[in-house]
Queue: 4 jobs
Job 1
Amino acid sequence: RVVNLATLGSMANGVRVSYSLSKQPLPVPRDPTPWHALPADDVMDRLGTSASGLRERDLSLRARPDPARPSPLLELGEAIAVELDNPLTPLLAAGAGLSAVTGSLDDAGLVASVVALNALVGGVQRFSTERALRKLERGERVMATVVRAGVGRRVLAAALVRGDLVQLEAGDVVPADCRIVSAEGLEVDASSLTGESAPVVKSAQPTKARHLADRSSMLYEGTEIASGRATAVVVATGEDTEGRRALRAAGAAPRRGGVEARLEKITKLTAPIAGTAGLALVGIGLLRGRSLEDVVSAGVSMAVAAVPEGLPLLATAAQLAAAKRLGALGAFVRDPRSLERLGRVNVLAVDKTGTMTEGRQELVAIAAGGDARPLEGLDADGRLALAVGLASGAQPRASHAVDSLDVAVASAARRLAVAAPARFRPVAELSFDANRRLSAVLGAVDGGSLLALKGSVEAVLSTCATTHGGAPMTDAARDEVRARELELARAGLRVLAVAERRSDGPIPLSTTAVTPDELAGARFVGLLAFRDPIRREAPGLFRDLGRAGVNNVMITGDQPETARAIAAELGLGSGDVDTGADLDALGDDELAARALAVAVVARATPSQKVRFVRALQRAGRCVAMAGDGTNDAPAIRIADVGLALGTRATAAARASADIVLTDERLGTVARAVVEGRALWESVKDAVSILIGGNLGEIGFTLGAGLLDGRPPLNARQLLLVNLLTDVAPAMAIAVRPPDQGTLARLAEVGPDASLGRALYKDIALRSALTASSAGGAWFVGRLTGTAARARTIGMVALVGSQLGQTVAAGHGSRPVLWTCLGSAALLTGIVQLPGVSQFFGCTPLGPLGWATALGASAFATTVSVVVPRLGRAEWREAF
């Protein structure tokens, strides 16, 4: 709403100032010139902002409220509805309805319960994960100091609008895209947006650079002020910022069919078999003269009982169990289905800065009077260079501007017990400037004064009159220093030069600043080499993933030399190193072919990262993208699996990710891949037990029915068999934790290996063993006793053979063992208790009957273990 025009007057100056209290910012005239190319004054004029922050817009400091969110119950309901949108739900609902129509209300209730449980468990997981992530993000809301009408106030970044003046200093997170108006010694950690590991220098001078990382007059949302201070005007907020625009342009990645799609295909194969078997029983019964009602009831009951009710829940349960295990390690799984995609991943693309590296600067070598030496082997000249570097970062007055390189120098000096020269006491300074490319600190020392200089090699050399040894600084000496700098830069190190100028006599009391004229005549001291250290566990992660058949690619916005050096440390030296410009020179098809040979992409923009990930996908690869910055968010979103890593992960990266890691442990990434791979193997075993058992039931029922003229098991007995063998035991297999020790053990696990031909072989074997063992036990029982006793022996053998195969497939898992023992105990009680036994159409068994059933079960279990081992003997030896 618009309040009437208000007037504020300043009668002291005889000036009357009027402005509108509109709740919306005034429209900005369109101008083709980008913000970074305009002079700061023109930017202010275009936005209608004065130097005091006064403009014709709302002066309210009230933050915009967060969008209204639905109640928790409504959110939970929506999450459950998403889970109900499952391709197998209609099939199971139809089975439940058919069971109810034919009078099998117990069977219908079981099917309906499975569908409801599936949706409830999955919905609760989705609901709890989203709330946990939202809570995490609420704790990281960015604040900003905004200047309005000459008054500075702290407000939420969400309250900023275009045209606001903001004040920023070291440690502040940039709250929106801003054009710098004024700056003092400003350096920005832009790694979250551009991927550059070293802080970049920023100033108010306009620039025509096209590359985002080279726009020195701009500050972008989510980056951090490393040193210095600045005043800037907001030019874009919310969805209009560079980071959000790149994320929006990326769109969403198409999710290719995974475990649920394959399970749906398997179900479609078993349904016709069950229907055909039911029709066969109907036909046999009619030929034998049984009533139509009896034969139709028996046929429908068997067909419905043969449908694997627990099948859709297997995938969800396995995914939720893996998600819960990862959650205990600090990894939030937003969508449990992403874990099965993670099990298919064969390419891991990672950001460098802050992901594979620690995102900080570390002093690693010093070159003083000779070749560069590591800190552990410094000589006297090297220690002097470190001392001068320490003095060059001293603060002559209280300041919040802390340079990350000064922190690294101070840390190295403490570790090596090096102090500033002769009890150095800083008095005045010349702050860093983008044009000078150096800074200086003047301080008092015993017997005089010391001017300590630090900056780019060229800038410092321009002030030096003598070399490290005191000889005149000739062109040859300068070339020697430049050659050493180039050697260090090729190793991926950031290089600064240090110099000093000593004077006798005290510093005048009137000295408050150092002028550029005072820098001449310095003595060159040495070179300081810094790096962003890699995480200790990073090489091991890549090594383990490589053994599991996962190719690793690093995509970074950093310079090619730095990227190449880091790649060598990480063990990625076997592939090529391309730049974002190299990618732009290739067409889509050319890039898809080229992407498979690339190990490192350097100097990549967010859009180029997206294009490279899509090229890998077009080449048939399943890609996981791991990163922590706003520049990684678009690629994280369109990858098959997106991972946001560490406490430094930006809100954009987290919002785009399928899996969010809340700590810096890269080992959790390997554990997540293990869970994804093992999920396919667990689902394979569970599905083979479930489908193989159901097909075995069909085979037994049909075979015995052909011999005896009627099905050996009635509807209640079939329901009991499914109750004891389908959902709980198969579920225990699906949710078991991985028992393999290394990723290499899971190298061959995946969709085709797990739910392809190998699964069909397992299903065929298990169904044949289940049907033959139950049929053999029934036949022996028929020869040695009554038909009711034979049916009971056959049912016990049917259940026992399936439970025995489940225990064998559990590989010693306690939950699997206890679940099967529970089912066996329940079966024993039902068979032996007279009233309950008669309700299910059974008869209590004696020792011979139990021996027959258990012997057949033991036979099926033994063969199910021996035959696969013989077939996998060669594979096992390879690992």
Job 2
Amino acid sequence: MSDSPSWSLLRRLFDEALEQPAERRREWLEREAPDPTLRSRLDALLTAHEAGGDPEPEPPGLPLLTSPPGAGEWVGPYRLLEIVGEGGFGVVFLAEQEQPLQRRVALKLLRVGAASTQVLNRFEAERQALALMDHPNIASVYDAGATADGQPYFVMEYVDGRPLTDYADDRGLSVEERLTLFLQLCDAVQHAHQKGVIHRDLKPSNVLVTESDGRAQVKVIDFGVAKALGPRLSTETVHTQIGMLIGTPEYMSPEQAESSGVSVDTRSDVYSLGVLLYELLVGARPFDRSDLPDDSVTAMLRAVRETPAPRLGARLATLGERAPNVAAARRSDVSSLARRLRGDLEWIALRALEKEPARRYASVDALAEDVRAALNGDAVTAHPPSVAYQVHRFVRRHRLGVAFAGTVFTLLVAFGVSMSVLYGRQQVERMKAERMNSFLQTMLAGANPLRSGGGDVSVRDLLDAAAHDLDELHDEPEVEAAAAQTMAYSYESLFELESADSLARRAIRAYESAQGPLGPGTLEAKGRLASIFRSRGMPDSALALQEDVVAGLSRRRDASPRAVSHATAELGRTYQELGRYEDAARQEEEAIRVLDGASLQNLPTYGSNWSYLGRTYQALGRIEDAEHAYRRALEANRANRGEESAYVAADLSNLASALRAQRKFDEAEPLFASAAELNEKLLGPDHPGVASIYNSWGLLRKQREDYAGAESLYVKALDIRRRAYGEAGHPEIATSLNNLGVLCRVRGRLPDAERYYREALDMNLRMLGEEHPNVAMSLNNLAVVLTEEGRPREAEECARRALGLRSALLGPLHPDTVKSMRTLADAVAKPNDADSLRQEADRREAERAAKSAP
């Protein structure tokens, strides 16, 4: 062996060494790297890796593969300005984008010399983790690509903010203001968990705070060491790395500090959040290397694993001369701050920092719930159970009423009894949450290579295995129901609709057993099944179920405006799919009124409600109303979901469609282009949402007489929809077929047009029934092409059926009804009949124009 081991050999052995369990790594190195020089280089790499806590630092002293780019250079369409951050395997640049829009972005480039398979996988995992999420408190991912030298990069929202703890200290935030900021962080992490992503490196530098209109906004960044429970919901697999130290020692959970990764789950992020909460409140972390006799990483990890976190007051007392400054930064003095931190806040922090995951909060939501309770003066679940504590909280919140003599004793006794019952319920809910978490962790443990025989496990495999394990929850119906409903949603996201259907029905049965037919869980599960019915192209079945949900909520006095609005909107969407547009408009307008009345315009669903209302108005021929609704939707979704989201992409496409319908082609075309680019980036090229934009864009191209461009877009849309929905068919596939038929007819390819129309008609009849506007559309189109093929008898029959359907469903003055009247005039054999029909069509158009005039 030479004195200078090759880069490729070092990199391969470094990667393989990291894959060995920590306790067996030394034996492996002695066997695989006996050469002293090689061994020395590997030891240096591994020591640097363990000291830094990064998943794989760039090996020190190794030659670079390429020259790193500098300020002023271009990476794709982005001009690099300056380096704003560096990690173990990535360099983050502030960059500038000029086309198609001008903005500053953060561009993360894989560090040169670090392109091992393991690093590439983690770099891709971070990009996928960010792309999965759509939350105002999580930095968005915009783009991804590779440099000319083949180095991967991805582009994120640039967050020009301060680390969480620095921001709070710089602004001198009070304890209450810090807790409010912390709740934003909890919302972001809970969203990541719902998307199947554990951050695993939550620390102040990865939680930035910006200001907009004078309001602080948290932004979570850097998912570089995230554990993706489901990196993609299609063909990707779930991997669990064994034997790697992942995270930052001062903020990592005890199970992360074990280096095995086997027991790391969402509760590891709960622990890290506990450290951040602790530091926000007391100005110091529970454990700090500088406070330990031995300031090594090993000693730090041992403290995390074994030493109980000190109480907040006790930690404040250890700060010595720093304590007055810490208190002043919280607009307090030392003694007042110590009193404020005692009690609820102390119990919350210590529960989040429990060594055993099972003793922590079962979820981030549960932690946030206790923080909100502490802010509101309510009882927190983290406090040890005692009637005296519950009575104390009641007296604090109702001092005036309790002050009346003669009633105090009776009130306290009655309240003590009721609070004991309440606490019992809280314990039950906690046990349910922990049982649910245990079940899901068992499911996810199937991804462990040690359990799966070393092979990769797909998300579908995990769900299938868990579905067979649901029987073990039969004696706990609410837990069974919650697990079944969660899995039904996952299957629906995978377009595995039969499995989703079966699990949703199981959730309904379990909830009915536990809560009765009007229980909140029962109604929510019925709504999920109705959604699955719509996805399966079964709107009649969805309608009956959704009407049942709305009626059930109307009988519950405790139904929240949010739940009522959601169910009402879903009913409107079901009416829309059935072609009952007037009914749909009434329900969708009511859903918006409910949210407006409760001042809930900041909900993410608010923009969606306007979007669906716009589609209904467009179907009714109220194009200007539709444009207004789409603009409201775009405004709301940009405010509530962020500029880069699939909802914004859909709004751009919908607005473009409304403008196209008004022949405002120059305004519409760039909106379609922006919508398609954004949706492909966020959803991937094979998602039905991308097909919808291609379909609408193709219609604009057809109207502009760019027939080749239109056909290309229509074919793309059809291919995506066939792959997504399968051979059984779907109304959206029929829409693509109809559109291709129209285009072929315009281009003179009549046999192709007839074939597309007939396939679309058969599919619509099978999926939607005979009385639906889409069936009328297929019949009308088929009548047109049969007329042009010289087959008047068949054409007249189709045209009369189309006219009858449209008159009944849309009304006599609707533009589509008038269009069918003209189609019939072209098909009938007798000239007098044709003239009468055309005159009647002219009269109806004039009447409609007069009614719509101001």
Job 3
Amino acid sequence: MRRALRVIVVFVMVSGTLALPGVAHATGDVGFGKSLLAGESTTGPTTLQFGPDGRLYVGEDGGTIKVYSIERIGYNQYQVTATDTITSIAAIGNHDDDGKPRPDIVGRLLTGLVVTGTAGRPVLYVSSSDPRIGGSRVGLGDTGLDTNSGTISRVRWDGTAWRTTAVVRGLPRSEEFHSTNGMALDPATNTLYVGQGSNTNMGAPADSFANLPEYALSAAILSIDLDAITAMGPGPYAIPTLNDPTRSGPNDKNDPFGGNDGLNQARIVAGGPVQVYAPGYRNPYDLVFTTNDKLYGTDNGSNAGSGGLAIGDGSPDCTNAPNEGGISAEDSLHLIDEGDYGGHANPTRGNAANTFGGHSPIQTSDPVQCTWITPGPARGSIATFPDSTDGIAEYTASNFSGALAGELLLTSFNNSIYRVRLDAAGDAVTEVSTLFSSVDQRPLDISAQGDADPFPGTIWVADHTAGTIVVFEPNDYDGPPGPCTGLDDANDDDNDGFTNADEIDNGTDPCSAADVPADADNDRISNLNDPDDDNDGLLDTSDPFANDASNGIGRTLPVQISWDAVLADPGGIDGTGFTGLMTNGTSDYSSLYDPAEMTVGSATGTLTVDAVPDGTADGSANDQSYAFQLGLDATSPTHPPFAVTTRIVAPFGGSAPVPGQSMGIAVGTGGQDDYVALSTAAGDGSGAIEFRREVGGIVTNRRSAPVDMPGPDAVALWLRVDPVAHTVQPRYAVASAGVTGPTKNLGKAIAVPASWFSSGALAIGIISTSHGSGVPFPATWDYFRAKAVAQP
């Protein structure tokens, strides 16, 4: 497949000014090998760190901690020799949001881990929270999860057993994935810094986050004075909460559990051991203290359609009134100094007039926090990234003659590890490049070994989706590396199976076996240079299922695709779960979408095209993009009727649509001339549900029903397909204010060609169109399913 090389654009800061984009890829003398840690048994790893005892500590999303003893058994080969399992965090009791215990809710969402102490007495600080997930995602809404469930625990090895005690209770937890995340310990002051996630997307309560407002301690970097807590005496520090009018007395027996949608949230206590160190961080996933005593952290940007700006944004009178919509914004890297505002609005801290049961959890307003700021220099970002960028570590080893020493390493959901070079003072980024590509599936956290550690210079990555620990060993681990010319030729200098020329075309490093290009069919010819990415004999320019060698034959019902980060990777193209795009017969499928303009598997568990460009399959135009699909074998003469379904979240991002804009689902042959589509659409500009049938490039049926846009929280769409009767029935339902209305037919069932069900697999998928509007817009899908249904 021949396509133009897509360079990852990363803005960098030099002396406080916006500089040219950084180099797209790491090259030169820095090279690594790559392997998987053999014998590990991790499930859903979220965080990892080596301890002072030389063992690797790995936290899992269910609350379990695996402690691995590891040995190097050969060149670029590592294996686990013993495993110790800590289950005490997973055993922490859970509560509902009214504070009542829920012993039936088992496990904890563990997202942060710091290992300190000594080799003989390791000490762990662990962040965890309620394991449930809510929000509008798959219609869950408000699950009743404890929004005060954030807890910091201390786990100590006393020489014979692990002893666990709670240190802090009552930290916020959103209705979505945002929680009490990564931590960094300043040993000089015994202060623990914590990345605390937000309760909203951009500042306003919204359906995707179950309409929860920001809390006094949400969306911030928090500081915890561990010495002050110790001085208070035995037992955990339960952060004082508001006097919830629905619960008895100022100190309810279940406090601090159960935030009760803010009525019982934790208060900011003057002089208390838990403080807001730096406000305005949407979802700071990880933090690191570097050797130059500076604190850096990553922060996840907003998602289109997951919630809008606070009402009153930009004024000191911002409120916690709900507001749908929202845009996709890049992730950020920050140098975090005390008091710096990170740019994510929090009306609860911004305006003390925003009360809960008549009370404010803050002492004074900070109007700065009423304003949402775009990631970049104005927000204090020292670098920005187009994909979810989460884990962070400093490389301190002297490998490669110190070429990497002092640089930051960041994990990205684009399956890469970034290398970030800082200036001498550590105040600005001078260069960002990709150190490793094609890591595994979705790398989430990272740890790097120093010169005095058991495996000097190695880099260890936890891939949450794949459930693996990936090990990168420097080429000079056992001494100077072998020769590498790096010439643009047919040689394979790093012995990774790809020629130097192929790697150079892709921007990967021909001298680093750990850095390889994307290769869908694993034939060691990159997707860029392979005209048939699945080796099925069909060129990528005309293959409707270009990443499926069977072209859908053999795929049967049910089909269930979800983009939830805690679930298994749906696979397919860039993690969408789909194996092709609606083809026009001439364009390579890779040119029909741009992964940098999409958000797949965000905190809200959705798939979003951030800015749908102009283009459509309607009529003879055939310049449709972002129409993802997969093949379903419906050729059996007795195949049961089935429904293709989805849920469009926050249609048009809460903005008024422009005629020609639409988003929905499609069924057809896989080409842009033969399909039916059901969409949430602009109509004449006031909103509609639209259906069209196109056969042989001619639109033979159009239907529509008015639905006011913007307005709905979501729209559910169904195409009921009968492969025997050769008919399709469009249906829809509109959800507003948390209530889903009745399901309605959009006209009667309509006939489609019998050939659609007899010559190969049927194409089913999603489609978004901006036909002649010239105005890009966000399109968000909650899920995609196909399942058998009863006869009418």
Job 4
Amino acid sequence: MKPNSSRCHTAKAHPAWLLLCVLISACGGNYSGGSSESGNSNSGGSGGSGGGGQFADSRQFFSERVAPSLNFCRNCHVDGGVADTPEGSRFKLSASAVDDYEKLNASWIALGKGVESNKLLIEASVPAEPHSGGKPWPVGSVPYENMKILLQCWDNPSACAALLGNGGDPVTGLPLLGSKRGGHLWESFCAGKDENDATPLPADPRSLVRPGANEGRAVFYNAFWQDCHANAPEAEKQAKTCGEYIKRRERGRHFILDELPVGNSSAASHRDSWRKWGLSARPDNFDELYTLRYGLNEAPFHNPYPLQGEDPKVARDCPDGRTNVLGGCGRLPLGLRQRKDAQGKWTGQIGSAACLLCHGGQIGEPTLIGTESLGSGNNNYDVIMAARDGSPFINTPVETVLPPFDINYVFNIGVKQRGQNNAVGAFEFLNTLLDVDSLGINPNPLKTITTGGAQGVLDVSHPLAHTQDTPAWWNMGSRPRKFFDAGVSNDSTRIIMAAGPGELQTLFTYDGVPYRSRIEEWDQDLEAYFLSLRSPPWPFEKSPGVPDIDTTLAEQGAILFHSKNLWAETGNANRPKPMGGNGSCASCHGAYSPRYVNDPAYLETPALEGVAGHISPLAVIGTDRARSDMLTPTLRAGWDSTYWGYPEGTPGYVAPEDKDPITEALDDMSPLRQPGLCGWQKDVIGYQAPPLYGVWATAPYFHNGSVPTVEAVLDSSKRHTIWQRKLRSEGTVKGFDQRLSAYDKSAMGWQHTAMTCQQMPGTQQINCNPADDKGPSTQQLVQNFLNRTLSWAGLLTIPDPAANSIDKRLVYDSRILGNDDAGHEFTDVLTEAERKALIEYLKTL
């Protein structure tokens, strides 16, 4: 189908026709121009042809009908471009369009002349032909027909005149660069409105990802949305107007800041933390050193505590220049928060805001990842040090054998390294202690045993589920399912409150009512707040206000990201193939470029911009499978009928309060329990490709944080078995350096150093395997075996008596079960130039 050129270029054209013309001309449909950001855009349809008349000769036809399409090719087919390879250089353009006619003609001759058999035509149009730039002019499209006419003129000059009135006017394509930086459609749609606004909300883009969605297109979906609240009361369903959404969003913001913190530690106790650090006096930069020691980060909002002699209820001027400050002159990090009383006044008591311990990430200054980007995964949190300093066994031999008895450690089960957490293991711990539908106390060790596990036998190894690198909240609005394996629908809002029960007396009760009530009170408000968050922009600048991004290279990366079929390369010929899509990065991670977002060959609606809903099977993705193997047997078998699976929305459900106590206590393991509306995903065992908004700020990478840079993600030869991030230390206090000076701009990730087992802290005989320097140590072989076969065995550590052995937490060791850095090797087929272009493009998201 060709657009009617006169209607497409008429100023009063109907909007539907204008949209159709743009979509037909977009990349993967009909490319016809370069990005407006590249300076290469040309508009056709004026001059010699008069919109369908005769041209004087093939050169004039080329200038008006073909040249605009070549601006897309110019992104890559130039000296130094990603297509400047032995294969791609057979077709090469100049940076200037002046000599395009001669360049194209020379390439046509070099490629063997002809028309429909010539690579100039078929590489960019025939699906079976490998072309990293995709298919910018499919067979029958306007650019295809125009190029075909030009080649016919060259092939048979005597017949050219009769052809020059054919073809069609090209339409300039949409930009290659541009990003909405995550967040949710509702946030932008409701911008400028208030809580009283009655404007109906558009459909949640995530809810569009159902079986059959986007079928046959370049972006492939198999992680489907489920409506958990379908049979819930209207007040419990998704917001329907901008006013409802905004009200929920603001309640969610209030919850994070002032309702989430629990506990009542005194400000004096916090001020005296330095006494456990081996120091002789309180350092002047105590607040800064506190964040360094425990891997917490400065808050981008007012987060005070009172210093010695300060009344938090009295405003004062602070030594650092702040004036009229309430709450005190001290600065608490993210993860800690001074409590307020019923009148909203500071109390001097400090609570733990548990969610922000793991989601309170930061890079550089606090303003860099500000309040609109709150919720970056904290790849810095030092649960081991926090637990050690809170343990009664600190500095005793018992400390090296048993985990510190501290709440931080309990809810980060089995963590061995700084920057990781085990939220899923902590959840399974709660699932063992609490009744599955009432959430009342009902300890049942049988819940840790299931049949049909990873090996198809009795399985007791799952509860640790292995550590993970915390994802960013700002991508919640761009994924239809939660968790690394796409376990549950993102409409399962209850689970985001699993760690927010308030005080322990709310979490542990006989009937579970306080816990469930708190969840229902805040879960959808908290989700609305998460949906409002956006990723931080690339922070490095060429000059004030100008990002340090090579836009020419980034545009090449945009094309490769959305179009290059990695499985068309010979290096991937024997690798398992994805379940669908065009084989590009976008097929799993979603489409972001305006040109591809508006191309119906990629997305059935532009509302799906940036939505990633692809589960890659373990055999395809190849990343460490320990989390999948050990998580799935229990939760996949029992989740559906738990409170978290919304069983009350299905026929035959009996509420906990309507069952007798004995039945309620014994029915947790019953195969007759009623499944809910939102079950655990059981169709594909693998890992969900994440949305990539703000990817620069989420290093290290993979679900276990095993790869420190995007460069190493794309090139597995640059990974290291053992590595360490750049450290920062002051006296006895040390931790990861979170400053921008520790960031690797070219590789996109953290600066790091490869290590050998001999260079690790601790005892060499324990760290190394005498028979295999790179293989698991003797200690790890034993612990890995126990963790595979015995429930909760990962809580124990074979002691290392060396004084500095605790510093192993500052080293990433991929030999530990669950820490393997394998996977994603299908990108090894990229050239070095292609990797650089992709990284440059990712900086723009």
